[in-house]
Amino acid sequence: MVKEKDKTEKGTEKEVKEEAEKATGKKAEKKPKEEVKEKSGKEVKEEAEKATGKKAEKKPKEEVKEKPEKEERKKPKKEDTKKQEKEVEGKPKEEVKKKLEKEDSKKPEEKVEEKPKEKVEEKVKEIEEKVKKEHKIERIKFYEKKELKGEEKRLFNLRYKQKKKKPKFARQEVSFRKKLKDVWRRPRGIDSKQHEEKRGKGKIPKVGYKSPGLVSGLHPTGYKPVLVHNVSELENLDNKIEAAVISATVGRRKRNEMINAANQKRIVILNPRKGEIKEKLETKLLIGKKILMIIAPKDFRDEELKTPKEIFENNGAEVTVASTTAKTARGQMGAEVTPDIEITNVDVKNYDTIIFVGGTGAQEHLWDDKEVQKIAKESYKKEKCTGAICLAPVILAKAGILKGKPATVFKSDDAISELKNNEVKYSKKMVVISGKIITANGPKAAKAFANKIVEMMS
Length: 458
Hints:
Blueprint: H1 2-24, H2 41-52, H3 78-90, H4 93-106, H5 117-134, H6 150-165, E1 224-228, H7 231-235, E2 242-246, H8 252-264, E3 290-294, E4 298-300, H9 302-314, E5 318-323, E6 329-331, E7 336-337, E8 341-342, E9 353-356, H10 360-365, H11 370-381, E10 385-389, H12 393-399, E11 406-407, H13 413-421, E12 425-426, E13 431-434, E14 437-440, H14 446-457
Parallel strand pairs: 1-2, 3-5, 3-9, 4-6, 5-8, 9-10, 10-14, 11-12
Antiparallel strand pairs: 6-7, 13-14
C-alpha cells in the first residue's frame, strides 16, 4: 500500500510541473545535484572536540631546514630585481650594505693582468713609425714656368688674349631642359636655330677659335703636358720642352719614386697634390741694405712712394725718405709724409740705392734742382743702383747719366722732349734697365719697378 501511495505522490508532482509549464510557457530548469562536500581537517577536529569535550593540543611547528646554496648562482630575473629594490627601500642602509658585502664576497674575483706602461708606449711608437713610412710624402722641387722667347712668347700671349674673348659653347636647349648636361653637343635638326646661327641662340665651334699652331695644347706654364704612369716613361721626357702629368691610378709609394726621379732630372710635375709642393720660405733679400727715396715737397705720386717702400721693407731693407725741406710733404692723392732728412744733408756713401719718385711735383721742384742732380751723378759714379719713375727720369737725363742709353718716362710731351734733347733713347716699355740704372713710366709700373731693383740689389 505504501509503494502505491509513493507512486501517486510522484505522479501528482509531475502533473503539477506540467501544468505550471503550460501556464508559463517555459520549461522548469533542472536543479543540479548537490555535490557531497568532503570535510576539511578543521571541521573533523571541531566535531571530535564537541564529542569528547576536550581541546586538541597544538603540535609545535617543525623548523624549516635551510637548503644549501648552489655554487653557481642563477641570474636574477627582471621581476626579482624589482622586488629586491622595493624591499631595499624600506630597510635601513646598514642592513643593505651588509647584504651587498656578503654577495660581493661570494662572487669570484676576476684577475686583470695590468700591462706595464712602457710596453704600451713602445707599441704605439712602432705603429706610428709604420704609418709614417707608408704615408710619407715626397716634395716636388721644380714647379715653375718655362722661359719663352721670340715668336713662341708672342704667340703664347696672343693665345691668352684669344681665350679671353672665346665664348662658352653651350649645348642646345640646356638652359631649360634639366636632364641635359652642360657638355657641348652638335645641334641636330633641319630647323635648329643654333645650327642656322640665329642671334642669341649660342655660338658654334669653328676653326677661327683655335689657338696658334705653335702654342696649341701647351700648359699655362709653357710646357707640353705628357701623361706618365711609371719611372721608365718619366725618363724619356725632355725637361726643356715637356712636363709630366702623373696618372691618377698611381699609388703613394710609386708616386714618391716618380717624384724623386723627376727632381733628379729637373722635370716639372704639373699636377702636384696637397703637401707635395715645397713651401716657399720667407727669405728677406735686402737685409742690411739702405735705400734713399727722394720726393718732391709737394704733389709727389703716392703709389710710386708707398708700393716700392713696402716691398723694400718687406725684404729687410732700411728706407730713408728725403726731400728739399724737412716739412711734411703732401702727395697728389692726399698722402702726407714727413721726410727723414733734407737733400742738403744726404751722403751718398751711406746708401746702397738712390731712387727718385715722380709726380707733377717732380717737374716743378726737382727737375732743375742742382743738389738733386749732384746726388744722381755721385750714385752713378760710385756704381750704385739708381732708379727713377714717372716724370723723375728727366732728372737723370739732365744730370747727363742717361746719354746714349735707353730709358722710359711718363707719356708727357714735355718729358719725352727733355729726354730727346739730352740724347736719351726713349722707350715705350713700362720698365727699362740700362746697366745700373732702372727707369719706369708711371704708377702702374711701381710694383715691377721695385721688384727689378730688389733683383739687382740681391
